[in-house]
């Protein structure tokens, strides 16, 4: 039913477990991507430009490290997984879903925090697949 699941990675273990269970059930490939939190993209104003860039690069390296580590975890559980490079924010999800030709999009409610827990208006009507928003504690 779901050949390709696009998982917008969250820090919640329950979300990861949910996606793993879905992938096992349907024999799906999991495509992983992330949305950068706004606070990670906005260093303190008191920092110089060089320091701001260094902080941004360090946070970006950490995010990439974490997502590749998650990919390895899925693969070690026998689940086909791949990391999808995605630059942008929640506004670009429709483009990402179309580009990856996914059959299901899994998004954590926590990823909506920087957007007042609202989806962009144009997302749902143009989304090529079902969307599951998880709300794990």
Strand content: 15-25%
What is the average of the pLDDT values?
86
Secondary structure category: alpha/beta
Which stretches are poorly predicted, pLDDT < 50 over at least 5 residues? 38-43
* Succession of helices and strands: EHEHHEHEHE
What is the helix content? 40-55%
- Give Rg in angstroms: 16 Å
Could you state the CATH homologous superfamily?
Answer: HUPs
Count of domain modules: 1
User: Mind telling me which CATH architecture this is?
Assistant: 3-Layer(aba) Sandwich
Q: Give the strand tally.
A: 5
Placed side by side, the strands forming the largest sheet appear as 3-2-1-4-5
Distance between the ends: 28 Å
State the helix count: 5
What do these coordinates show?
With 137 residues, this protein is of the alpha/beta class. The chain has a single domain (4-134), classed as Rossmann fold. 42% of the residues lie in helices and 16% in strands. It has helices spanning 13-26, 38-41, 49-76, 93-100, 123-126, and strands spanning 4-8, 29-33, 81-83, 104-108, 131-134. A five-stranded parallel sheet has the order 3-2-1-4-5, covered by helices on one side. Helix 1 links the parallel strand 1 (4-8) and strand 2 (29-33). 23% of the residues are buried. Residues 38-43 have low confidence and may be disordered.
């Amino acid at each position: 039913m779901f050949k390709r699941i696009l998982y917008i990675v969250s820090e919640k273990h329950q979300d990861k477990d949910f996606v793993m269970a879905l992938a096992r059930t349907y024999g799906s490939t999991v495509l992983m991507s992330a949305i950068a939190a706004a606070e990670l993209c906005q260093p303190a104003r008191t920092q110089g430009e060089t320091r701001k860039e260094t902080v941004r690069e360090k946070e970006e390296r950490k995010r990439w490290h974490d997502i590749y580590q998650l990919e390895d975890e899925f693969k070690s559980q026998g689940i086909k997984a791949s990391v999808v490079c995605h630059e942008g924010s929640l506004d670009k999800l429709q483009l990402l879903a179309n580009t990856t030709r996914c059959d299901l999009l899994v998004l954590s409610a926590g990823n909506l925090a920087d957007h007042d827990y609202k989806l962009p208006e144009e997302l749902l009507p143009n989304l090529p697949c079902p969307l599951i928003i998880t709300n794990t504690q």
